[in-house]
Amino acid sequence: MLGLIGFLLIIWLIFVVLGFVVKGLLWLAIIGIILFVATAAWGWIKRQANT
Hints:
0% strand
């Protein structure tokens, strides 16, 4: 499960970087940030539930 969450976080970071680098893809950066935060929160909640 942690591997999947880590993989998703990396994908979202790539989207954020691409969104900021490419001039017309600011919307991609915003979506990437939202998905990164949501995935990180979900992983943190799952990790807390396992302990």
